[in-house]
Structures
1.
Amino acid sequence: MSIIRGSSQEALEWIQGSELGGAQKSQLTTFVQRFPSITHTRGSDEFLDFTESANRVRIPDSFRSAFRTLILAEDFPDFRVSSYSYWTPRTDNLLPIWYTGDWGYANDQERSSLLQAHMFPVAQWAETGISSLAINISDETDPKVYEFTSEDILDDIRGNLKPDSSVFPAFASYPEMISHIIELRLPDGTLVQAG
């Protein structure tokens, strides 16, 4: 399993050489240009295959293309976003939220409940886990990133509601989510603001 690391210049080359459309390339380029001094990461096919196997899911091809271009995973710094693109229950409380690129399910119970909502986590609130960002793994045509609280999904299931009743679109796509990042928190606690 491997994440590929590179400089900002290498990341820009990954973006330009990717299969992504012009808008998504532009969004990822914006992120790289805002954070030129960090090490950028992208997922190898080996990493994505391992992730699918470990979580017993299939990542839609459209997301694999984005993840092979630029990815927030493994030891990527925690990050804050300026806003969501859509309203969610946490829209008005974004300031304290630091997301970490925790990929996959924390345990079998979480996997069982989130799969009922068709969600695969790609980030969660670092300190509390109260807010998760995830992709829809049941619809190849759905590029959105969703926001939810795992506990709300469990409550919906227990209350015989649709499991995705508490799942809200947050970003139009994974590259759009990345373009909304305004600050990084390095492992030593150093804060890096978008330039």
2.
Amino acid sequence: MMNNEMEMTEYVSENREFLARVLAHGGEEAQGYALAALANGGDVKDIEEIQRLLDDLKERVGE
């Protein structure tokens, strides 16, 4: 794995909650960057964790 790919993978795994918040509440451009980070540095585990965080946020907003 190249250094940039390793950095992106590390960024995604360390910032899942932030990425979930950006996806839930960010503007269109911010959401695009979050999705690009996830697509280029995430794996299935990251996507599942972010989905769980989004579901948690959705429940809190609905309360």
